[in-house]
Amino acid sequence: MRKFLLKLLPCALFSILITVVLPVVIDPYNVFHYKNIRDNGVEPNKNYVKMRYILDNPDRFNAYLFGSSRVGGIDVDRMKGLHCYNMTYSVGVPLEHLNNLETFLQNGIVPRMVLIGIDDLACFVNPELHKNDLLRTPPPESNGIIETITFLLKYFNPKVLISVPIILSHTRDEQNYREQFYTNGGRLRNSTVSLKKYNWDKAVPAWGYQYDNRTEEAITEIQKIIDLCNAHNIRLLIFTNPMHVLTYQKSVENGYLDFLHRLSDITEYYNFSSINDVTTNNNYYHETSHYKIPVGDMIIDRIFDNGIDEPLQAQGFGYYVTKNNRDAFFALLNTQINKGNSHAF
Asked: What is the value of pTM for the model shown?
């Protein structure tokens, strides 16, 4: 028996190495290194990393900006009178923001203000898809040992070894990378991290094969966020991300305006999604999904400084939608679509 066990020992040690030790050491998604995040060339699970950071620093911020990676183009340091943290994470959707906010409140974190940037992802992406996606697996809703272990067990996975070539070939920018997470959570103006140059000659809408219309579910989730903020006297501001015209038109074809109309049933919001001089200008975008920091500045100026650019507002950019003016607003959007203005320059 002893000899048999000795023969099994190398196999057992190798198995532990592959399924436990290496995944923790390599840790491409930084779930084991959230306190000292590493720039390894692989996008981390930002939802988990940021939630852990905030729970460990509950008094550092008094406002939070929720949204998908698109709100990463917003410089939250420009929000006057607030110390805001950008919770931007990949394909973030309302149900995940709701769960994050509930976790904050359960841990005594009651922000002064919550901002949420939404767009087509909110009504077309099913959050259930994220549960088996290591990049986007939502964090446990409590800090209990069992819940945390259950979450981390997903990352004891030999599949993470395929990230080794990416990690070894990546040029690191540790200081700026860490500042993104531990200063304000968003992309910094002085960051030297560069994005790949997009070939605009081959531009296509940012659209996923898995998208499906879930407007009613999304509206229900947003209503719960509204109710939660009202119950805790949290000021809530909702705005739509200015989608590139190609992505915007694809979304409208699949029911995005229906979602916006339903949203106007339950709340007022700032709209930046339309066919306008910003969303049709490629210079304002990294590609057809993410806008650049100057666009984020326009959003902040409109929301916080009432910086109304009348020509842009007449095109739907910065339009504050209420039940009283929504008929005129949707008439504007429908007129734009019917004109078939799809040219981006």
From this structure: 0.91
**Angle at Cα 93 formed by Cα 281 and Cα 245, nearest 5°?**
15
Both tokens assigned to 21: 């030790």
User: Which pLDDT value is given to residue 168?
Assistant: 84
3-state secondary structure 198-258: CCHHHCCCCCCCCCCCCHHHHHHHHHHHHHHHHHCCCEEEEEECCCCHHHHHHHHHCCHHH
Angle between helices 94-106 and 46-56 in degrees, nearest 10: 20
Instruction: Choose among 165, 145, 161: nearest CA to 153.
Output: 145
Query: How is residue 20 written in tokens?
Result: 């436990």
How far the first Cα of the chain sits from its last, in Å, is: 75
The per-residue pLDDT for range 177-232, each reduced to its tens digit, is 888 899 999 876 655 555 678 999 999 999 987 788 999 999 999 999 999 999 99
Helix axis angle for 215-231 and 256-266, nearest 10°, is 30
Phi, psi for 320 (deg, rounded to 5) = -90, 110
Q: For the domain with range 18-188+205-339, which CATH number is right: 3.40.50.300, 3.40.50.1110, 3.30.70.1140, 2.60.40.3550?
A: 3.40.50.1110
Q: Where are the domains of the chain?
A: 18-188+205-339
Q: Among 218, 216, 268, which residue's Cα sits nearest to residue 98?
A: 218
CA pair distance 242, 248, nearest whole angstrom: 8
67: left (phi over 0), alpha (psi -120 to 50) or beta: left
By three-state DSSP, how is residue 291 classified?
strand
Residue 40 has pLDDT above 60, yes or no: yes
Structure tokens at 70: 């698109």
Q: Is 265 exposed, middle or buried (0-12, 13-18, 19+ CB in 10 A)?
A: exposed
